[in-house]
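S., here's the first fold you wanted:
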Amino acid sequence: MWLFFLLAACTAMGLSCARVCRAAAAAAHPPRVAPGPAAGPQEGDRDPELTVYETAYLSGGPRRIAEVALVSMAQQRRLLLAHTGWATVVVPVGRDAFELATLAAIGDGGQRRIPAVRGELAAADEVRKLADRLVASGLALPDGARKSLGDAVRQLKGALLLVAAAAAAAVWMAPSGTDDGLLLAWFALPVILGTATWSLARGELRPYANWATTAGERLLRRVVSEEPPDGPGRAGGRAGSRRHPAPGRPSPAPVPSLLSLAVHGPAALADPALRAALHSSGA
């Protein structure tokens, strides 16, 4: 009887590992998406540099873009981000489409909770257009690829729990005199396979695989290695650069530490007040 449990455990684990590998391969080489009217430059003719907003999306998705826009305006004293979690407009001027969307998300009242602003800004049309451009350029993963990868990893975790349950059931139903150690050793094989696959997935698919393709990750690594501490708004530019963004691709103002925020999130901010504001619930 215990062989039935072993077979079920091995089958579930094998299918789960195969799904993770297939999803990872699909994420590394996603199908090209036909560009729409607003898709912008393609992989062969695009400016090889990234804006800070594009860097933010490839590193942390739409929420990271929202955080970059909020902090950019706060560091230029056009927005006040309180540690209690409220955003207050000081100067109602937006210098690019994302800052204008931020002001629209705050509303006419001039004050709103930061989580609500961040959520609405993350779903704004400008963010979706930027995501579509990056997907069409082969730098960002399509929504389907991200979902498939996440579902595959969750299935693998479930398979590990199934193997543990099957091993316990096999020990309980094994005939008297059965060597429990030998029986559990057989069940250790699918556990080792699943654990190894999970470890490889965590190591290979981080830190950007939720959003960036392999090409996007390479570009992000180059951006991080080349950007000076107080570099220009274009994340991939060098100090003193005077390049202008391509039409339709806004470039944020040069704000210190903004690139670190785009790549690493709020934890990278040197200002503890800003970190507290972005982490606050605003309740």
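And the second, which I think is the more interesting of the pair:
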Amino acid sequence: LYYGFYTNATIVKNEAMPPYYMQLAYLLTMGIYFILCFLSLLYSMATSFLKNFSSPQMYSGNAAKLLCVWDFNITNANAVKLKQKNLSTQIKETLSEVNAGVLKLPFSQRLSRIAVHVVAWALSLGAAIGSCAGIYHISLVNLQVRREENRPVSLINHLVLPIAVSLINHLVPFLHQIYTSIISVVRLRFSCSPLPLCRNILLKVSLIGILCNYWLNKVALSDAKCWETLVGQDIYRLLVTDFICCLLGSFFGEFLRRIIGTKCCKKLGVPEFDIARNVLDLIYSQTLTWIGIFFSPLLPAIQMISFFILFCVKKVSLMMNCQPPRKAWRASQMNTIFVFLLFFPSFAGVLAVVAIAVWRRKPSETCGPFRGLPTIYEAISGWVAKLSGYPGSAWVVWIYHNLIESVHFFFILSVIMLIIAYLYWQIIDGRKIMVKLLKEQIVNEGKDKMFLLKKLRALQAPKPPNPGKQSERHSSVRHPMHFPLPNSIESSPRVKERDSYAEV
């Protein structure tokens, strides 16, 4: 489970088979894992953005949600209610966006809105700074206890840091909800305000940053015998305590809250299911797993099991204890935002942490596959130096020296990626402009049709009878779709026959 278990020896079963380099296996496994995660996140983010932000469907008329969206094949009563709630949520999302776009408040209300938001942000920043300072102090005390060789470290001392982090991570967002409730009471909040989400993101990013600083600058530079294993154990305890806090939150925050709101104090009602907070908890756990995979290789397997259990518990709690949130979210676009948050700053920050551990920190002298090396990265350079003596491996050496070690290659690759991103951005903007122009053209086409229909009705309107002209009398009682014709055509026998039938 931990880094210190793995050996630095080259495993040779027999002379006929090539040796197995444990150092390379350890590094390449982590590298391939991160590459697959990067490609998966990049594909998910690009697909979601293309579908929810640049698709022409988002410019379609809202009348379809009222007239053409119902599925008449639904016959089950529960399915009908679920479909009604779904349509109601979609209409609320659309109305909230329309109201946010056309709402114009007087100067006094705008000033009061800004003041309340400033106070809420000040309280949130104060809570985040105080939480980070407390965690930093607890981490230093925890490290000092570990350094005392003659003093046995109890289980409580090991669990102080993860319990404190988990409690802060789950209790402070409830304070943010109180701020949001106060703002809602004074009616100073948009229905789709992302500010509570931003405050929770700030808190979680700050906590992870303090923990990474503690692991890489305090634990790694200490005189611990195997600092990598200590980091892996801390992250494992953090994930376990966070999993327990999530289960307790579902029980106390949703089940007991429903019992109190329906039995004791009915004014409270059924609790809402906070989608944003639950998704951010998943992103927080996934970030810790990414950081801990280098120090605890089997951590993703443990996290998969915990995610499966959490999914089942949350699903049951959602159906039995919660109601849909009153605050309307644009679900498709929020999905894109959550994937983007999972990609940056979570994944980008994890890469920075792993890069510092691989390139800058000295591995432990007594444990792990990289013992005795100045840096972990020296394992790859030493292996490439051995390959230089084999003619068949010259291409591997060329790729290493010209691609991996070359700073210019990464600079050129970054420039190419930026150019591709810019081109895609321009293509998306062009599609949006094209869809907007097509929408305006459709509106103009409808106006042209209305204009032509008015002219047609004006031509079809009956004229006052004139006794001096029999032909005009006939024209006033002709078929409704009759158009005026020249005199030469009106005098023809076939036209007269048609007029006689029209009179009949």
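Why I say that: Strands lie at 10-11, 20-21. Residues 56-60, 187-192, 471-504 have pLDDT under 50 and may be disordered.

Talk tomorrow,
H.
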